[in-house]
Each structure stands twice: as structure tokens, then as C-alpha cells.
Amino acid sequence: MANSFRKLSWGLLLVLLDIRIAYFDVWPDVIGYGMMYFALQRLGAVRPAYGKAAGWAAAMAVVSLAEIWPGPSGFHADAPPSPGWIAFGGMLLLLKLLFMHQTFAVMERHAFDGALPAEAHVLRFRRRLYTGGQWLMLLALPFALNAPDESRMFAFVAVIPMFLLELMAVFTFRRAAHWQGRLSS
């Protein structure tokens, strides 16, 4: 179980890394989502509710295949974002929101059932913090179409808290690997 939580954290960390040569994604997100899927499949043998989160990871892996070669009209170019890429980004954010909410909720229940109330309360707080931040990003995403070029710097500032929330999730999964000895199935 500890290895599965570690694999889950590595998968999320690989999704955070975005290494590109021109428009080509050298380290595609589908690899990280695949790692998360297989980690949750193994955790699903211990607690079936983890299997539901594995479905969200599989959906993100399929959707993220389009990011391997977004072309010059994607978010990674100087061209303004198109409505299609805005919708695509919103769909991926929504899938990640559902994935993280499900994963944190199952981990929280697992900690409560394993008589680890302090860890369960921390997980509840982190789940609410992460989902709240993701909802804010989803609500702000449609306004990117009408944003003037001068305000694009503020979009960069908005990405920093989301990156920190993603890192918080990575460390939460790493911490869960240490809890596994005290968690009961």
C-alpha cells in the first residue's frame, strides 16, 4: 500500500513537470496519469472506493493525449487562446478536480476508519482547500478569452497558488505512504 501511495505522488509530480521542445511535450502528462491510475488500481484491492478515483485518472490520461502536440494555437504559443483550448483546459481541470476530490475523500474515510482522526481532519482540510482552488480556476478560465495582453501577468500570479496546491497534494500522498502502517483496511 505504501508503494502505491508513493507511485501516486510520483505520478502527480510528473504531471506537474512540463518539459517541451518547441511544441512537442517531451514528458507527456499521460505517463503521470497512467502511474496514478495503476497506483489507485492497486489501492482498490484494499479499499474498492479507490477504484472510482482510478477511473478519473484513466479519463485524464485519455484527455491529456491531446496535449502531446498542441500546435501553435495551444496555450503554449504566442497566439491568443482559442475557445477550443479554453474548453479543453476547463475539461481537464474539472477531471482533475473530480479525481482529487474522490482520492482525498477516500483517504479521509480510510484514515477515520483506521482510527487516525488527526490525519483524517488534515485530509479534509486539504481536500477542501484543493477543491476550492480548482473551482476558482474553473470559474476564472472563461475570462481568459477577453483578457487584455497587459493582464496576462496576473494569470501567471494565479498559477502560483495552484502549483502550490498541487505540491501540497504530492506531499499528502507521500505522507499517506507513512500512514499506511497504521491504517487498517
Strand-helix topology:
Layout: H1 2-16, E1 20-21, E2 24-25, H2 29-46, H3 49-64, H4 83-113, H5 117-140, H6 152-179
Antiparallel strand pairs: 1-2
Helix pairs in contact: 1-2, 1-6, 2-3, 3-4, 4-5, 5-6
What report would you give on this structure?
It is a single chain. The chain has helices at residues 2-16, 29-46, 49-64, 83-113, 117-140, 152-179; strands at residues 20-21, 24-25. The chain is 71% helix and 2% strand. The chain has one domain (2-179). The model is unreliable at 73-77 (pLDDT under 50). It is globular, with a radius of gyration of 17 Å. It starts with a helix and ends in a 6-residue tail after the last helix. A hairpin with a 2-residue loop joins β1 and β2 (24-25). Strands 1-2 form a two-stranded antiparallel ribbon. α1 packs antiparallel against α6 (152-179), α2 runs antiparallel to α3 and α4 (83-113) packs antiparallel against α5. The protein is mostly helical and 185 residues long.
Instruction: Determine the strand fraction and express it as a percent band.
Output: under 5%
Distance N to C terminus? 10 Å
- The helix content, as a percent range, equals over 70%
Task: Using the alpha-carbon principal axes, give the shape.
Answer: globular
Q: Rounded to an integer, what's the Rg over CA atoms?
A: 17 Å
Q: Let me know the largest β-sheet.
A: 2 strands, antiparallel
- Total strand count, please? 2
Mean pLDDT over all positions: 83
Transmembrane segments: 82-99, 129-147, 153-173
Keywords: Membrane, Transmembrane, Transmembrane helix
Features:
185 residues, mainly alpha, two-stranded antiparallel ribbon, 2 strands, 71% helix
